[in-house]
Amino acid sequence: MNTTNSTVAVLGGGAAGFFGAIACAEANPDLTVYLLEKTSKLLSKVRISGGGRCNVTHAADTPAQLVLHYPRGAKQLKEPFRQFDAQATVRWFEKRGVRLKTEPDGRMFPVTDSSETIAQCLLDAARQAGVRILTQTSPDQIEPLPDGGFRLQLVGAHAGEMTVGKLLIATGGAPKSEQYAWLRALGHSIQEPVPSLFTFNVPESPLRELPGVSVPHVRVRVAGEKLEYEGPVLVTHWGVSGPAVLKLSAWGARRLHELGYQSTALINWVPEYNEDTLRHHLREFREQHGKKVVTSNPLFGLPQRLWRTLAEQAGVTDEVRWNELPAKPQNKLIEALLNTALPVRGKTTYKDEFVTCGGVMLGEINMKTMESRRVPGLYFAGEVLDIDGITGGFNFQAAWTTGYLAGRAMGEM
């Protein structure tokens, strides 16, 4: 196995690892670049992202727009995004024959709507650049050498010793603190990991009979906390999901962890209204459409099943018309529209797209090159860092950017 100083190794066969390995090999063809993946699967997160379509990035004209979507790492990502932003990602893939399209919400996907297009592009680019990919192989021991470089004791399919001049760690986030012990042993501090991007479990949900109902624009907030987010919500058989919930979980990841995922989520189904304007609107509707049956004529574009459920829970019986509606059930309906209370009793990982907040502390990293300030020649990229974005392509963009910068810097031997 190659053990010269003109060898570099990348740990992790995901988005950041591949981008780093490709960038390094393309920047310096004289280097021997190894990519080591401990499992038999490469780019597994890329393949499942976006329901198998791969949400590659998010349409953003400037780095300043991009950083608004990172609960952790926003300030530190400004400089990296100036060097490699979302538009650079689009150009990178287009140069290799993969065109991306932008959906109305800003998410960007390959025009094929297939994550395999992205995975194959990365595999082809790596092989074309001469990256040597070793699966089922990982270091059991990493030893920084006195004169620079690292000795890796490899286990698995390609067991043996490898000496490298530079090393990129792109092993992704981990849910448990002890899984970062090997990075602490290398001299790095770890921000404790907690889950991000998850849905709310509501076993006693007043909406439990409505799985599959979605509303495109609601406000979700956590009672007693400064946590709220607006966007689409999906009612599920276990609770609530959808972009508004996922993004709220990202911004509130640490606080929700402190609360033990026990809280009350309050849903405002009509966020453009407050109590006064909503009451005024219903008064006008009642005057103009008093003979309409309340439960069978949904307002505000809300789904029929949801409207009926809210009305019935407010005590509005079938066949009651607006001009017959007593004050008490109307007040309860107003409260339900503005503040449906959901007792949250846990969380569920969103599909298979597990994201953690936490990881290697960014103060210990040179964000221009992604090199460790503690250990010369050691680089980091992707979710192993204390960086995480909300759903919408932002975590991949951070992976592409940090991987690219690390790879380019490693190529400068």
TrEMBL record:
Pfam assignment, any one: HI0933_like
Domain RsdA/BaiN/AoA(So)-like Rossmann fold-like per the UniProt entry, residue ranges: 7-408
InterPro entries for this protein: BaiN-like, BaiN-like_dom_sf, FAD/NAD-bd_sf, RsdA/BaiN/AoA(So)-like_dom, RsdA/BaiN/AoA(So)_Rossmann
Domain of life: Bacteria
Location of the RsdA/BaiN/AoA(So)-like insert domain: 194-355
Keyword presence, Flavoprotein: yes
Keywords, ordered alphabetically: FAD, Flavoprotein
Requisite cofactors: FAD
UniProt xrefs under NCBIfam families: aminoacetone oxidase family FAD-binding enzyme
Protein name (database record): NAD(P)/FAD-dependent oxidoreductase
Species of the source: Hymenobacter tibetensis
